[in-house]
Design goal:
By secondary structure, the protein is α/β, with parallel strands linked by helices. Helices cover about 50% and strands about 5% of the residues. The chain contains 15 helices and five strands. Strands 2-1-3-5-4 form a five-stranded mixed β-sheet. Helix 6 (about 125-135) runs antiparallel to helix 7 (about 145-155) and helix 8 (about 160-170) crosses helix 10.
Length: about 325
C-alpha cells in the first residue's frame, strides 16, 4: 500500500542545481548559538558534519531548555543526519509547544504536511495557517514561502502560490546565480512549452521569475516531485484549461497504474506522466514542445521513449529520430 508521504514527496528534499547560500538567515538565532542548519537546497554537509552539528545543538538545547529555535535547529540537523522522522517531528512539536511565536517553529510545523511524518496541524489548511503566522512574525524572512507555495497549491490557491513565489525574490530567498540559471531555462524554451523540473533550485526560480517579473507566462513548469502529490498535480494541470496534454481520466489511469505497480517496478507517478506525454508526442497526439531540465533524475531520462536534443539549458524531446542531433537517446 502506498502512503500519503510517498505520494507527497517533499520538494524540500529535492535538490537540483548548484548549492548556494541563501541571502537571509533564520530570525531567532542569537550570538553564541551554534551555526544555522540551512536547507540542503543551499548547502549540504557530510554525514560527519551533520552529526557534529547535531551534538552542538543538542548541548545548546540542554543548556537552554526553553529555546524553541534550538529544538527546530536540532530537529533539522537530525533530519539531514538521517534520524527517523518521528524523532525529528518530536523536536518540531516541542519547539512549537515551547514558543508558539517562534517563526522557525511555525515554519517547521507547517512543513510537516509535505514531509514523511504526520502533520503538526489539521491538514494542509492548518499547516498553511502556521506558515502564514511565521510570515507575520518575521516578514523579511524568505524561508516560509518555500513551504507556503506548495501548500497553497495543495489547497487549490494558485494565485496565492504565485504570490509566495514572488516573495522569494523580494525577500532574497533565491540567490542570483540560481535565478540566472532559471532565466536561461525559461528564455530558451519554445513558445507554449512544458518543462519538467527536478527539485527546488530548478523550480522555485522559474516560478518566481514568472510571478515577480512576468517572464514567459506561456511556459508550464511541472516539478516532478510536486506531480506526485495528487492535489498539487490537479492545481498544476488545471492551468492548462481545455488544452491539457493529459486529461483527468488519463491521469487517473496513470495514478491507478502507479498504485498497483510501484512495489514491482518502483516507477513514480511523475515518471509515468513523462512517459505518457512522450508517447503522445511520438504518436502526433500532442504538438507542443516538451522539455526536461538538465537536472532531471537519470531514471526519468532513461525511461523516456523518445530521443532528445539539447536546446540551451534544456533537453527537448523530439518525435523523430532524425531530429535528435548530437544528443543521442
Amino acid at each position: 500500500m502506498i502512503t500519503r508521504p510517498l505520494l507527497a514527496i517533499a520538494i524540500l528534499l529535492a535538490v537540483a542545481c548548484p548549492i548556494l547560500a541563501s541571502a537571509r538567515h533564520a530570525p531567532s538565532l542569537l550570538p553564541g548559538m551554534p551555526r544555522e542548519v540551512v536547507s540542503i537546497r543551499c548547502d549540504r554537509l557530510t554525514a560527519a558534519e551533520y552529526d557534529a552539528l547535531a551534538a552542538e545543538w543538542r548541548a545548546y538545547a540542554e543548556a537552554h531548555p526553553r529555546s524553541g529555535v534550538a529544538q527546530v535547529e536540532l530537529g533539522r540537523t537530525l533530519r539531514y543526519a538521517g534520524a527517523p522522522a518521528d524523532e525529528v517531528r518530536a523536536h518540531f512539536a516541542r519547539a512549537l509547544e515551547l514558543d508558539p511565536r517562534c517563526p522557525e517553529a511555525l515554519d517547521a510545523a507547517a512543513s510537516t504536511f509535505l514531509g514523511e511524518w504526520e502533520p503538526l496541524a489539521d491538514g494542509a489548511a492548518g499547516c498553511y495557517a502556521l506558515g502564514q503566522r511565521a510570515v507575520e512574525l518575521a516578514p523579511d524572512w524568505a524561508e516560509p514561502h518555500f513551504t507556503l507555495a506548495p501548500l497553497a497549491m495543495v489547497l487549490g490557491l494558485y494565485e496565492e502560490a504565485q504570490a509566495h513565489m514572488a516573495a522569494l525574490i523580494a525577500k532574497g530567498g533565491i540567490p542570483a546565480p540560481v535565478l540566472d540559471y532559471c532565466y536561461n531555462m525559461l528564455v530558451g524554451a519554445a513558445p507554449d512549452a512544458i518543462i519538467f523540473t527536478n527539485g527546488d533550485n530548478d523550480t522555485y526560480g522559474c516560478h518566481a521569475l514568472q510571478a515577480a517579473r512576468g517572464l514567459r507566462p506561456d511556459v508550464h513548469v511541472l516539478n516532478l516531485s510536486l506531480l506526485n502529490q495528487p492535489q498539487i498535480e490537479t492545481t498544476l494541470f488545471a492551468r492548462f484549461g481545455d488544452r491539457s496534454p493529459l486529461s483527468a481520466d488519463e491521469r487517473a489511469r496513470l495514478r491507478d497504474e502507479f498504485m498497483a505497480n510501484y512495489v514491482h517496478d518502483h516507477k513514480l507517478y511523475s515518471t509515468k506522466v513523462v512517459e505518457a506525454l512522450a508517447g503522445k508526442l511520438a504518436a502526433g497526439e500532442w504538438k507542443g514542445p516538451v522539455y526536461l531540465a538538465l537536472t532531471v533524475a537519470p531514471w526519468v531520462v532513461e525511461s523516456c521513449p523518445l530521443p532528445r536534443r539539447l536546446e540551451g539549458m534544456l533537453w527537448r524531446l523530439v518525435a523523430e529520430d532524425g531530429e535528435a542531433g548530437d544528443a543521442g537517446t
